[in-house]
Each structure stands twice: as C-alpha cells, then as structure tokens.
Amino acid sequence: MEKMEIIEGLLYIAGDAGLSEEQMIMHVPITKAHLEKVVGEYSRPNLTIQRHGDRYFLQTTPEMEKYIQRILDDRPSQKLSQASLEVLSIIAYNQPVSRGDIEMMRGVASDGPVSTLLGKGLIAKKNMHDERAAHFVTTGHFLQLFGLESLEALPTQKEILEQEEMDLFFESIEEEK
Question: Is-contact 152 161, C-beta < 8 A?
Fold first, then answer.
C-alpha cells in the first residue's frame, strides 16, 4: 500500500478531528519532509488535504459544495444561537479565558452556550498552571469549521467594522427599493 493511500485512509477515519503531523508520522512510515511533499502533491477528483493549525484534514473541494449543500439542507438545522456565537467570539479573541471572564464581558450567565460549544467540539477546557478556574480555548475543529489556518487569520476589529458598515449600506439600499 502506498503511503498516500494510508494517509488518505487515516484522514478519512479521523473525520472532523483531523490528525496532527506528529500522529501522521507516528502511524505512517514517513518523514516530516516526505509528508509535506506527498500532501502537497495530493490530487484526487473532488478531495483535498488541508492543514489548519497543526492538523491535517481530508476535505471535499469547493466544486462539491452544491451537492453537499443539498444533503445538508435535508438535515435539521444545527445553527449556533446568538449567545453561543457571542461566547465563541469572546473565547476566540481572548483565549485562554475563564467562564467568569466570559460572563463579565457578556453581562449574563453563559453556562448554556459554553456547554453547547464544548459539546460541538468548538472549544476545550484548558487548565492554567496557577489558577483554579478552568479556562477555555478554541479547538482545531473551530479552525476547520471557519476555514481558518490559524487564529491569526481571524478578522481584525477594523475589518469587522468595515464589514458592518458595508452590510448597513447594502441594507439601506435594499430598503429604498
């Protein structure tokens, strides 16, 4: 069996969790340099291997989106609530952050949204060495779901404000019609 076939099979089984470079090297007889080379050369119709953070994921190409969307449209909605999105953004931009810090920023209890985000694997608990309270950080699944290579790819406050201004502008045009 070719190494690329092994990698492809392992990434398929790993699913949304993906595999770290260390895991790949541990389970496939391959060096780091050779791993990067074969992943870079990976070519299958409608499949690609993406790296988000330190993890690799087997994903479909953008051309498959409309077909996948049809299947997803048939499923019940699993959207995040506004409260969960608020908590997720607080954690993404301020991590590691404690539950108390989250509640102080939001001004309301956040047990439900934190529990939802933990259940969906978008955040994880991180124990801080010198503090009793557990802190929360985003996961590799968060990066994958939002299509980010790293946390540095999160939009800046300036970019968010510009996008909000553009949204308001286009909403006002729509209202005038």
Answer: no
